[in-house]
Every structure is written in C-alpha cells, then in structure tokens.
Amino acid sequence: xxxxxxxxxxxxxxxxxxxxxxxxxxxxRGPQAATARAAxxxxxxxxxxxxxxxxxxxxxxxxxxxxxxPVDDEAGSQAFxxxxxxxxxxxxxxxxxxxxxxxxxxxxxxxxxxxxxxxxSVETQARLGGRVQALxxxxxxxxxxxxxxxxxxEAERARxxxxxxxxxxxxxxxxxxxxxxxxxxxxxxxLDRDGREELIGSFVVxxxxxxxxxxxxxxxxxxPDADAFKTAWEWFxxxxxxxxxxxxxxxxxxxxxxxVGEVVVEGTYYESNDYVVYKRQQGRWRPVYQGGGGxx
Length: 296
Description:
It is built from 4 helices and 15 strands.
C-alpha cells in the first residue's frame, strides 16, 4: 500500500494538470473563436407562398469574401442544417435594408432535388408574399438602419417603363413585342441613404404561341439623375423553357458597411434557381457573387 498510494496520487495529479492545461487552451481560444464566428454572416432569402414561408441561404459573407452555401455538398449540407435549421432557432428579418422582425425555424425541408431550405414562421409588419421577398440573417449588427422599401409612384413607374422599353429596343426586340411588355416587379428603395430612392425592376415580354413560344426578360437598377432617372445596370436575356432565365429582386442590405446597400436578386431558370449579389463599385454596378439556390 505504501508504494501504490504515491503512484496513484502522482497519476491523479498528472491527469488534473492535463485537464487544467486543456481548459486554459479552450479559455484562451474561446474569444478568438467567438470573434471568428461573429465575423461570418449568413444571408438567407425569405419567401412566402400562400400561408407557407420558407428560407434558403443566399451567401456566406466573411471579411469581404463571398462564399457559396454548401448546397451540393452532402456533408456540408448536413452540418449547415444542424447549425442553422434546428427547430426554434431565430434570425433577424430584414426588409428594405433594415430591421423588419424575426424568423423562427420550424423544420428543415427534405430535399426532393438539390437544395438547402427550411420551413419558417415570421413575425413582421413588412409586406411579404407573392413576388415580394425579404432577407434574414444570423448577424446581430447587419441592417440595423431604417427600412426603405415601397411601391413606386405613378411618375416613377412611368419612367421605369420608358427605360425598360428603350432597353428592349436596344436589344433588338421588335416594337410589336415591346408593346406586350409586363412589369413583373418594381420597387423603390434608397440604396445609399441619400434621401432619394433608386428603382429596381424586372420586366418580361412573352410570345405566347403553341408552335414557337418565346420570352425576353429584363432586370434594371435605375438611379436618380437630376430631376429624372437613368439606367445604372441592365441585364437582358432571351430564351424559353430550357433556355429561360430571369432576375427578380429579393431585397437590399449593406453587407460590407460602405454605406451603399448591395442588391440581392434571385435568378430563376427552367428547373433551378440561384442568387446574384450586385454591388456598386467606383460609381458602377456589377455582379460580385452568384450561388446558392438549387435545382433538379
């Protein structure tokens, strides 16, 4: 007994020392890990169809870099679902670049195809449904300003239609088809918080024919120009069914804190979708990211 007790005490002391060292490492690394997590922001698109509300990740933003969510990575999707789509987890809802309520996860959706989404409930006074979407985020600081999103005035709508028709004509669409142009969605929002709203719109011209259907889609970012408006960004596409593509406004939010909101849009195609982020750099708009979504 006299020889075994010191050995036991020595062993227990060694274990205790090792445990204390491990705790010290965890404590030392804790703030850094928390800071790293805080630096990463996940942005989700929130959509309402009838009474069903869903959300799916748009982009993972970290220190100026845009990363795609792990939509087509099985292990990554499972890890993402465990972290973000557990029942009861809450996120902040953003509309018009500002606070608009909360989103609560009900359950992760079972993918019939390739996608990453969850059924959610929302608490908000902002309009949501149909072609009007919103954003959600895990960030506690993103989009803390006032919301800026409204329907355009009649004068704004008239000018946007004028600019859209000019864009169709420039891209070779005949006057007869331009006369059939429909406004899919048109929103006024103040992207740079200067008190003057920009206009963001989607337009479509369809050739409804049993033998040769066709479609021309258009997306515009329109900026104030003196007492009028001018086209600041134009995206045009011609194609039908397997070649179909369009762009629909989701919302805006200032991801990088430069004072100008990035424009988030959903790209829809024949059997898939994704998201595009547009950013104004050196006075010009351009796409800086495309990813997320999914398809069959």
